[in-house]
Amino acid sequence: MSPEPAVQSAPPRGEAAFAKMHGLGNDFVVLDAGALSQPLDTAVLRRLADRRLGIGFDQLMLLETRREPFRYRVFNADGGEVEQCGNGARCLARYAADHGLAAGREIRLDSAAGPVTARVDGDNVSISLGVPRFQPAALPFDADAEAARYPVEAGGETVDIGAVSVGNPHAIVEVDSVDSAPVTRLGPLLERHPRFPRRVNVGFLEVVSPGHCRLRVYERGVGETPACGTGAAAAVVWGRDTGRFDERVTVSLAGGDLIVDWPGRGHEVWLTGPAIPVFEGRIAL
Predict the structure, then answer these.
(1) Are 82 and 58 within 8 A, CB to CB?
(2) Is 85 assigned a catalytic role?
(3) How large is the angle between the packed helices 86-98 and 229-241, nearest 10 degrees?
(4) pLDDT tens digits along 28-49
(5) Given 91, 129, 228, 260, which residue is catalytic?
(6) Choice among 44, 60, 85, 202 that is catalytic
């Protein structure tokens, strides 16, 4: 019997330095694009995201420039690229400050969703996510005209949702209690609903008072996470626009609290919370 042919392994990609960070348990890997010998493909991204075989992350923040404005790209755990990530941008700003890349504590960033201003104050980082947009085409979302709520058929029932873009698309479902919210059932159905051609993040919002809410988010390409920065911003923006919230709202998520400030339409929305370094290392790609 002739010997079996040797298995041909993939050509080596080298290794890269990374930082692991989190915002309220929503975790990230920050990777410097300048250290890569070739672009990251979907298979490599998924392996890096694997919590047993890789580093593990909800999103990978790829830093493309090491000077202001810091250009970055965002990849979900499923390997797909998305426009924006609020907690990830806050962690990236903390990374730039900690590594001496930024000249001051106010830091300019740039993303596919547009420019971002960050303010670093120790563990707390605030970012502006720009001016929210409500037009269905901005998400995009298939609807004839802008409305406060849209009826959507999902899982054999009609669900009323709000829809808003804070640099990435969000659907908001108001619930009596996030503890009993149908996150695992409705989250995947709405995330991939055909009326959202680029998929959507789904927030389940419980209004506690004009200055406080509770929230769970089923993130596009990730699933439910302990916290979602853009999800918190979108929920408050929609809630304030429909008359439920004050200008400043504390958003309680499984991982902790975020603060969202939004005066109203035509104004930028600000997101504040902790951005925590976990460890740094090198990994084979």
Answers:
(1) no
(2) yes
(3) 130
(4) 999 999 878 788 999 999 999 9
(5) 228
(6) 85
Q: Which two tokens stand for residue 73?
A: 């790209």
Nearest partner of 60 among 51, 72, 70, 71, judged by Cα:
72
What six digits make up the tokens of 176? 């009596």
Measure Cα distances from 20 to 84, 188, 282 in Å. 18, 27, 11
The stretches in the chain having pLDDT less than 70 are 1-13
CA distances from 24 to 87, 129, 177, 271 (A): 8, 18, 21, 13
Contacts of 136 (CB under 8 A, 6+ apart): 142, 143, 145, 146, 163
> In terms of Cα–Cα distance, which of 143, 182, 139, 164 is closest to 239?
164
Q: Token digits for 212?
A: 């406080």
Looking only at the bridges linking them, the beta strands covering 270-274 and 276-284 are unpaired
Residue pair 285/36 in contact (Cβ under 8 Å)? The answer is yes
Instruction: Report the C-alpha gap between 124 and 276 in whole angstroms.
Output: 9
Alpha-carbon distance of 144 to 114, in angstroms, equals 26
pTM metric for this prediction: 0.93
Residue 104: predicted pLDDT: 85
In this structure, the chain runs to a length of 285
| Dihedral sign from CA coordinates of 153, 159, 162, 168 | negative
Q: Are 140 and 133 in contact (CB under 8 A)?
A: no
Q: Could you tell me the maximum CA-CA distance found in the chain, to the nearest angstrom? A: 78
236, 230 in Cβ contact below 8 A? no
